[in-house]
Design a protein that fits this description.
By secondary structure, the protein is α+β, with helices and mostly antiparallel strands. About 25% of the residues lie in helices and about 35% in strands. A 4-stranded antiparallel β-sheet has the order 1-2-3-4, with no helix packed on it. Strands 5-6-7 form a 3-stranded antiparallel β-sheet, covered by helices on one side. InterPro entries: YdbS-like_PH (IPR005182).
């Protein structure tokens, strides 16, 4: 599956900007510019977290903003701004980023400080 979305003006949600977002199973590509086009890619396995937000104006015109928090050096916070189908795009990125991390075996587990009671008894003696 692949999503191709354009950044839109907030006014009526018209796609008159020159920014295009392409979201595939393995990569997110942001192409910006008219005369000089700059493409930036972020591998899906680098996406750590995704948020979805909509302002009142975005809700009126059926738009939303998806923010990806990544381990990428060029875009640590990749913002897909004023796009249609934003909730669907967010869910797709979450699902595909998790699958990409599992494929590459780059899943990070957090130790939140749980302590084994047997270890505490051993430390007291």
């Amino acid at each position: 599956m692949e999503f191709v979305e354009r950044k839109r003006w907030l006014f009526f949600g018209l796609p008159f900007t020159f920014t295009k977002y392409t979201i595939k199973e393995d990569m997110i590509t942001v192409a910006e510019g008219l005369l000089k086009t700059v493409e930036n890619d972020c591998y899906m396995y680098k996406v750590q977290d995704v948020t979805h937000s909509t302002t009142l104006a975005e809700k009126i015109f059926g738009l939303g903003t998806v923010t990806c928090y990544t381990g990428d050096t060029t875009h640590p916070q990749l913002v897909l701004q004023h796009i249609k189908n934003s909730r669907t795009v967010k869910d797709f990125i979450l699902k595909e980023s998790e699958e990409a991390r599992l494929k590459r075996r780059t899943v990070n587990m957090l130790d939140i400080g749980s302590v084994d009671l047997d270890d505490m008894d051993d430390a007291d003696t």
